[in-house]
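User: quick one, fold this
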Amino acid sequence: MGNIHFKWVTWQRAIDPFRASPPTEATEEQTRKGTIGRDEELSRAMVVDLGDVPESESARRAFNTLTTVWNVPPIPENGNFRELKDMERAALERNLRLYRFSGNLGALLRLGYPAVLELALPGIPGKRFVSLVGRETEELLVDPPVAGRRSLSFSKLERHWSGHGFLLWRDPLNLLANVWPGSKGDHIKELQGLLKETGTYSRALTGVYDKDTLLAVKEFQSLRGIEQDGIVGDQTLMLLYRSFDRFEVPGLTAGRR
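Assistant:
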């Protein structure tokens, strides 16, 4: 009897490798359907949580999230806040600048600033807004929470993002209006000094936006992953000021809020 049992076990082991396993396609299809289901559930939650708030009020609340980060007064509930020019005016009144961003989410994250994202939600006319306030590994931290969650994956957030948004930033040295290729003066010396500290400029502080300064600006832009046009615009200055602790620029927080 023992010998028969041994032969049965041996035969079972011999045929195990040839037994059919569950089809890979079916497993992948189930996973895909599960992912789609969760995404649709999140979309419905975003519609419920954000859709009942009027577009202007959604923009005001998101703007005020950034004012909290910058430690400046928020816009009151009865404040006039209907158009982009209202945001720009509100930013200037708080000694800040408003930068209208257009691009992909990866490029926005490289700037490292808290930002407001413009969302397009199914069945909801107009736009709604959430603030991007931090990062946690593969998750992005948002305010207000969506379906009780303060973190969303890159792909889930990108699915509803219009590709547009805005940031607040500060130009303490007033370089934006005074620095361009060929210009001269103390503002150029300040720019050259900042570039020298980043290691992209090694010449004397001449106060002239010459070829060497232009090359240094392009090198800095290349290192920071933005367009290498040699123009000291909003993104270049935002990243330049972020290079130094003394300018106290807020960044995307790490970890859960």
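User: anything notable?
Assistant: Confidence is low (pLDDT under 50) at residues 4-15, 17-21, 30-37.
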